[in-house]
Amino acid sequence: MAPLTFKVAPDSKVQLAKIDPRYDADIDRAKAEAEFVKLTAELDELQELLFGAGTHSLLVVVQGMDTSGKDGTVRKVFSQVSPLGSYVVSFKVPTEDELAHDFLWRVHQKTPAKGMIGIFNRSHYEDVLVVRVHDLVPEAVWRQRYRLINDFEHSLTQSNTIILKFYLHISKQVQEERLLAREQEVTKAWKLSAGDWREREYWDAYMAAYEEALEQCSSEAAPWQIVPADRKWYRNYAVAHKVVTTLRGYKDEWLSKLGKLGEERLLELKAFREKV
Ligand code: ADP
Question: Going by CA atoms, what residue is nearest to atom 9 of ligand 1?
Answer without folding.
Answer: 92
